[in-house]
Amino acid sequence: MTQLNTPYPSTAYLTGFLRSRGVAAVQDDLALGLVLALLSREGLNALRESLRAMPEADRSGPVNFFLDHFSSYAQTIDPVIAFLQGRDSTLSHRIAGRGFLPEGPRFAALDAYDDDGTGDPLGWAFGALGQQDRARHLATLYLNDLADVLRDGVDEGFEFVRYAERLAASQPSFDALAEALAQPPHLIDAVLERLALQAIDKHQPTLVLLSVPFPGSVYSAFRIAQCIKRKHPQIRIAMGGGFVNTELRELSDARVFDHVDFITLDGGERPLLNLIEHLQGQRSAQRLVRTFVKNDAGRVQYIHLQEPEIAFEDVGTPTWDGLPLHNYLSLLDMLNPMNRLWSDGRWNKLTVAHGCYWKKCSFCDVSLDYISRYETASASTLVDRIQKIVAETGQTGFHFVDEAAPPKALKALAEELLRRGVQISWWGNIRFEKTFTPDLCELLAQSGCIAMSGGLEVASDRLLKLMQKGVSIEQVAQVTKGFADAGVLVHAYLMYGFPTQTVQDTVDALEYVRQLFENGCIHSGFFHRFVCTVHSPVGRDPEAYGVTLLPLPEGTFAKNDVGFVDPTSMPPGVDHDLLGQGLKKAIYNYMHGIGLDADVRQWFELPKGKCPKTTVSRQKIAGVLS
């Protein structure tokens, strides 16, 4: 499970590449298919029958509400899905009127918005004319209620994005997944297996590739593989993707290969070409590239014949052929114009370059291929790809999903788009570096740039230097203001709990963030807790960052996150979990224009006298900008 509004790009890239090499390749999005099957009248009928078998004492509030209002859910689910797919816009009138949808526990959050007592809690966000967006937000709450029912009544790991994540993320043992896969299929499993087997019957493949980008995709991927092996044991199955590349690099548990035949690491193009040649009898198993197999002795073997990578210029154009592009759901869960881009709208996902041109940040997996191997394509090649994709999909929205899109490449891309008169809307991820001058920001906006995200991380010059981020607070302020002045929305990725970060650092960082919002430099942000990975500079050289790594448990499956001891956080030191609650509360309010004039200490529920006053002048960012 990844996103419901647009396909994850890996299958589009690999399908396009394989077809360019003469391989008959097709693709299917079983994550979307699963959600659409569950969230249908037929799916809700099956859900009700499953819930009725639960003891009443075990039923949660969302489950009881669903059963009590089942007839309303059954009558509204198909029209709501059609509305979110953009196929029935006039339904917005009824949804926005608040008399059409059953309003379960998720709708209680709306009460917090009715500050003026008008009875219109969303008036501040959508006004008198924002009816489509108002209805989309209410419909999203409605779907979230149903997700809660599926979680409480069928599978406690169910989520639209992070499904059963705990079974896979940094799990040293395959035991948890093996135990879950050994259980009889529940309702969600049964639907997924039915869809997988329908796809097999339709396409009749000899090789199935499962793309597993995140821990929340792993359980379902293994369920798919399991049912294919059971019904069609002759079909070979390979697994790859972001989760595999970061977490399974030291895989040694042979039980994994009860479900799949091959696991490939890093960019899939070269390993898959070699694998297909092997299956066609044109090369031996010992000439595979970056591939795990189970050998004749029943042990996991890693095979890596050194061969050149496929150049980024030669990977071809992604294709979305075969994916139901008009069936994706445009959701609106966050009432923030920048945040909505991640869940609203069908974006063609594309990369400007492979890897990261900076590859120095100490918290990042800079030792892995997806960061370390930096390659570009010419602006002419990129715009050729863009035009082919628009011709195929009929849609002109692009999300450039680079780790950090290089400024020179973006400048060349913008100039080529303008030279050809190609009209698209695009957004992407960058480093807030000084190369992004106001003139370049304006050029990118003219070419169709609508938004940019980038890492501010811990807003502290001391910690940014320790992170080797290569930017300063002043520089970030100037660059983000340049984008904002050009009419481009700006999102900041923020971090807390970095090694040696103190309470004072945290308070000062939030003050900088407050001022960036106050001065119109950034429009949204997200705080996440620093996690040390074995592939990052902190994980590889912890002494340089003042921390000591905790011993990893003996493991044969996933290996990525590693615990550490930071003397700064030891009792009676820094409680990053408690600070994180305040940071997340603050950023949520700042994104809605609330609390920007208040002392940042109000967000932290620390013991009296434990929250220091910020050392940052309240006019610091304004002074930098002037």
Plain-language structure description:
- With 626 residues, the protein is α/β, with parallel strands linked by helices.
- It contains 23 helices and 15 strands.
- The protein has helices at residues 9-20, 30-38, 41-52, 61-68, 70-84, 92-96, 123-126, 131-153, 175-182, 187-203, 218-231, 242-247, 269-279, 369-372, 379-393, 407-420, 438-446, 461-467, 473-485, 503-518, 537-540, 576-591, 620-625; strands at 207-211, 236-240, 262-264, 291-294, 300-303, 348-350, 353-354, 375-376, 397-400, 425-430, 449-457, 489-496, 524-529, 548-549, 564-565.
- Helix 15 (379-393) packs across helix 16.
- The relative contact order is 0.09.
- The mean pLDDT is 94.
Strands of the widest sheet, in order across it, are 6-9-10-11-12-13
C-alpha termini separation: 46 Å
Which percent bin holds the helix content?
25-40%
Q: Count of DSSP E strands?
A: 15
What are the defining features of this structure?
23 helices; 5-stranded mixed sheet; alpha/beta; 626 residues
Question: Helices and strands in order, then pairings?
Answer:
Elements: H1 9-20, H2 30-38, H3 41-52, H4 61-68, H5 70-84, H6 92-96, H7 123-126, H8 131-153, H9 175-182, H10 187-203, E1 207-211, H11 218-231, E2 236-240, H12 242-247, E3 262-264, H13 269-279, E4 291-294, E5 300-303, E6 348-350, E7 353-354, H14 369-372, E8 375-376, H15 379-393, E9 397-400, H16 407-420, E10 425-430, H17 438-446, E11 449-457, H18 461-467, H19 473-485, E12 489-496, H20 503-518, E13 524-529, H21 537-540, E14 548-549, E15 564-565, H22 576-591, H23 620-625
Parallel strand pairs: 1-2, 2-3, 6-9, 9-10, 10-11, 11-12, 12-13
Antiparallel strand pairs: 3-4, 4-5, 7-8, 14-15
Helix pairs in contact: 2-10, 3-5, 10-11, 15-16, 16-17, 17-19, 20-22
